[in-house]
C-alpha cells in the first residue's frame, strides 16, 4: 500500500492525536455491542424471567451508552478533520513550493489544467480519505470483528452459519474494488483534461473572440465534457453491477438468521434473548459489508489522487542547484559563451556559440525568428542547461553558481510579458519590494513609462488586470523594463523589449538607459536594427549558429545578412553615414 505509506508520512506529525482518535473509535466499536447484549437480557430476564426491576437499569444503561457514543464520536470525527486539514495544509504548501522549484522543462511539457487538478481535486480526495475514510474503515472493521467474536461467545454454531456467508460478500467487494479502480484513474485523467480546456479557453479568450471560434471551442469543450460524463457513468455502471449483489447478500443474513436461529430456539439450543442479541448484531455484520463498497470506492479515489500528488512532489527539476559557494555578493558581469550547444529533444537549437562580453558592454542579438536568440539568453540564466560547452559568468560555469545568486544578478525582460493583477507600483517593484516610490518612479522614467502612468486613473496605484489587461503592448513592455531596471542587476537582458514601442520612444529609452548600462552587461535581442545598432558587439544568429559578428559599421561592410536586414528596414540610405541619420528622422 504505497499510497497509505506515503500518507502516513504526513499523518505521522499528528501521531498522538491520530492514535487517540483511533482508540476512541475502537471504544465506539466495543460500545456498539452493549445495546444488543442488553436487548437480549431484557428479553430473557425482564420479559421471560419477570425480573421487571432490571428494566429501568437496562434502559438507563442503553440510553447512557448511546449518549457516550455520540459524544465520543463527535470528538474523534472532529479530530480526524483537524488531522486532514493539517496534512492538506502541509501538502498544499509543499506542492506550491515544488511548483516554484520546477524548471522550464517541466512547464514546457505540463498543462496548467493538470497542475490545477492536482492542487484542487486530488488534494480534496486525499483530504476526504484522511478525514473520513480512515476511521470509517477502521470502525467498520473493528465492529465486524467485535460482532463475530461476540456471536461466537453466545452461540458458536449459529455464528459459524452467519460467517459462512461472509466470504461471498468479501469476494464481491474485492471484485468491485479491482474493477472500479481503473475507472477512477480514467475519471481523474479526464478531469485534468477538462480543466486544461477551460483554463486554456479562459486565458486565450481574446484569441477565441478575435477568430470568432466560440462555437468551435464550445464543441471542443463538449467533447471533453461528454467524455468526462461517460467515464463517470462507466464507473457508476461497474458500481451498480456489484452494489445490488452486496445488498442482497446483506439481506441473506436476516433470512438465514430467522430461519436457523428460529429453528434453534424451537429446538431449545438458543434462548429467545440470544436470538434477539444475534438479530441486533446483524447490522454489525451487515453494515461493514454494505459499507465495504463505498469505502473501497473512497480508497480507490484516494489511491488515484495520492499517486498524482506524490508524483508531482517527486518530480525533479533537471536544473539542480550547486552547493559550491563563492564568496561573492555581486557579480562583475563578465559573460562568456564557450563553444555552447543546446537542443530541444532532437532539434539542435544552438551550435558552437562562442563570444565574450565584459561589464559596460552591450551585446545585440539579431536574426530570423526561431534562430535561437531567446534560447541563448535562457542558458545564461540557466533556465536550461547547455548540452555542450560552457556558459561562464565572471569566469565560473553557470552550473556552479548558486542559482539564486545567479538569477539575483540577472534581470530579464522576457518576450512574453507577465504583469500581476496588482498596482503599477507593485508590478514595477516586484523584484525589489523594498524600493521607495522615488526609485520606482526613476525606473519608470528611464523606461519612458512615467508619463503614461501618471495619466492612468490612479497613477502608480492603478490596478492592472490579470496579465496586464488594460495596458497596450508597448505600455506593458515599458512597465516590464522598469521592473528590470529597478532590480539594478549586473546583467540586463532585454528580449524584444521595445518591439511594440515606437522608434522615437525607443530612442529616448536608449538614451536614458545609456548611463545606467555603463557598469552593466546588457543583452538586447531584437528584430529592429535600430534596437541593436549601438551595441558593442552584434551577433547575427541563423539556425542556431553565429553567422556574423561585429559592430554595426563592420557588419554593414560585410554586406551579408545584417546589411540586407538593415537595407530592408531603412530603405535607401547613405552608405557613408551608415543609416545613423536616417534612423533619427
Ligand atoms: N520550450 C521549447 N520546447 C521545444 N522547442 C522550443 C522551445 N522553445 C523554443 N523552441 C524551439 O527552439 C528554436 C529557437 O527558439 P527561440 O525562441 O530561441 O528563437 P528566437 O530566435 O528567439 O525566435 P523569435 O525571434 O521568434 O523570438 C525554435 O525552433 C523553437 O521552435
From TrEMBL:
SMART domains: AAA. Residues 335-568 form the ABC transporter domain. InterPro entries: AAA+_ATPase (IPR003593), ABC1_TM_dom (IPR011527), ABC1_TM_sf (IPR036640), ABC_transporter-like_ATP-bd (IPR003439), ABC_transporter-like_CS (IPR017871), P-loop_NTPase (IPR027417), Type_1_exporter (IPR039421). Signal peptide: none annotated. Residues 19-301 form the ABC transmembrane type-1 domain. Pfam families: ABC_membrane, ABC_tran. GO terms for cellular component: plasma membrane. It is found in: Cell membrane. The chain crosses the membrane at residues 52-72, 129-152, 158-178, 245-266. GO terms for molecular function: ABC-type oligopeptide transporter activity; ATP binding; ATP hydrolysis activity. It is a multi-pass membrane protein. Keywords: ATP-binding, Cell membrane, Membrane, Nucleotide-binding, Transmembrane, Transmembrane helix, Transport. Its main location: membrane. This is ABC transporter ATP-binding protein.
Amino acid at each position: 500500500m504505497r499510497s497509505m505509506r506515503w500518507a502516513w508520512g504526513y499523518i505521522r506529525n499528528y501521531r498522538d492525536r491520530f492514535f487517540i482518535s483511533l482508540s476512541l473509535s475502537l471504544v465506539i466499536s466495543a460500545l456498539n455491542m452493549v445495546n444488543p447484549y442488553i436487548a437480549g437480557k431484557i428479553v430473557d430476564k425482564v420479559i421471560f424471567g419477570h425480573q421487571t426491576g432490571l428494566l429501568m437499569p437496562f434502559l438507563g444503561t442503553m440510553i447512557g451508552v448511546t449518549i457516550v457514543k455520540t459524544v465520543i464520536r463527535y470528538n474523534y470525527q472532529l479530530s480526524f478533520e483537524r488531522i486532514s486539514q493539517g496534512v492538506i495544509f502541509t501538502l498544499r504548501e509543499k506542492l506550491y513550493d515544488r511548483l516554484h522549484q520546477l524548471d522550464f522543462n517541466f512547464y514546457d511539457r505540463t498543462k496548467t489544467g493538470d497542475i490545477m487538478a492536482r492542487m484542487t481535486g486530488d488534494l480534496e480526495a486525499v483530504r476526504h480519505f484522511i478525514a473520513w475514510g480512515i476511521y470509517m474503515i477502521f470502525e467498520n472493521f473493528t465492529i465486524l470483528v467485535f460482532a463475530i467474536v461476540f456471536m461466537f461467545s453466545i452461540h458458536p454454531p449459529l455464528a459459524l452459519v452467519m460467517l459462512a456467508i461472509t466470504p461471498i460478500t468479501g469476494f464481491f467487494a474485492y471484485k468491485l474494488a479491482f474493477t472500479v479502480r481503473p475507472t477512477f484513474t480514467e475519471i481523474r485523467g479526464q478531469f485534468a483534461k477538462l480543466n486544461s480546456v477551460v483554463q486554456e479557453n479562459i486565458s486565450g479568450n481574446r484569441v477565441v473572440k478575435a477568430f470568432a471560434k466560440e462555437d468551435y471551442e464550445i464543441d471542443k469543450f463538449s467533447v471533453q465534457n461528454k467524455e468526462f460524463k461517460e467515464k463517470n457513468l462507466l464507473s457508476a455502471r461497474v458500481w451498480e453491477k456489484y452494489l445490488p449483489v452486496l445488498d442482497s447478500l446483506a439481506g441473506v443474513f436476516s433470512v438465514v438468521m430467522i430461519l436457523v436461529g428460529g429453528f434453534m430456539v424451537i429446538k431449545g439450543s438458543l434462548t429467545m434473548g440470544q436470538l434477539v442479541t444475534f438479530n441486533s448484531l446483524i447490522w454489525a455484520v451487515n453494515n461493514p459489508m454494505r459499507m465495504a463498497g463505498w469505502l473501497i470506492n473512497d480508497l480507490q479515489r484516494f489511491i488515484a489522487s495520492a499517486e498524482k500528488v506524490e508524483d508531482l512532489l517527486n518530480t525533479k527539476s533537471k536544473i539542480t542547484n550547486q552547493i559550491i559557494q563563492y564568496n561573492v555578493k555581486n557579480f562583475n558581469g563578465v559573460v562568456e559563451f564557450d563553444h555552447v550547444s543546446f537542443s530541444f529533444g532532437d532539434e539542435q537549437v544552438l551550435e558552437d556559440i562562442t563570444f565574450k562580453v565584459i561589464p559596460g558592454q552591450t551585446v545585440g542579438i539579431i536574426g530570423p525568428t526561431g534562430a535561437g536568440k531567446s534560447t541563448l539568453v535562457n542558458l545564461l540564466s540557466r533556465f536550461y542547461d547547455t548540452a555542450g560547452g560552457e556558459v561562464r559568468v565572471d569566469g565560473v560555469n553557470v552550473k556552479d553558481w548558486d542559482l539564486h545568486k545567479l538569477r539575483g544578478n540577472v534581470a530579464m525582460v522576457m518576450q512574453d510579458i507577465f504583469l500581476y493583477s496588482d498596482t503599477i507600483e507593485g508590478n514595477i517593484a516586484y523584484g525589489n519590494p523594498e524600493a521607495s516610490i522615488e526609485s520606482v518612479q526613476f525606473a519608470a522614467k528611464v523606461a519612458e513609462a512615467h508619463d503614461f502612468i501618471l495619466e492612468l486613473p490612479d497613477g502608480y496605484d492603478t490596478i492592472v488586470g490579470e496579465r496586464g489587461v488594460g495596458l497596450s503592448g508597448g505600455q506593458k513592455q515599458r512597465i516590464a523594463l522598469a521592473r528590470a531596471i529597478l532590480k539594478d542587476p549586473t546583467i540586463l537582458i532585454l528580449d524584444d523589449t521595445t518591439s511594440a514601442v515606437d522608434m522615437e520612444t525607443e530612442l529616448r529609452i536608449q538614451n536614458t538607459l545609456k548611463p545606467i548600462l555603463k557598469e552593466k552587461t546588457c543583452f538586447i535581442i531584437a528584430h529592429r536594427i535600430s534596437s541593436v545598432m549601438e551595441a558593442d558587439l552584434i551577433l547575427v544568429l541563423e539556425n542556431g549558429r553565429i553567422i556574423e559578428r561585429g559592430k554595426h559599421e563592420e557588419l554593414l561592410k560585410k554586406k551579408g545578412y545584417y546589411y540586407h536586414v538593415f537595407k530592408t528596414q531603412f530603405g535607401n540610405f547613405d552608405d557613408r553615414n551608415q543609416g545613423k541619420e536616417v534612423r533619427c528622422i
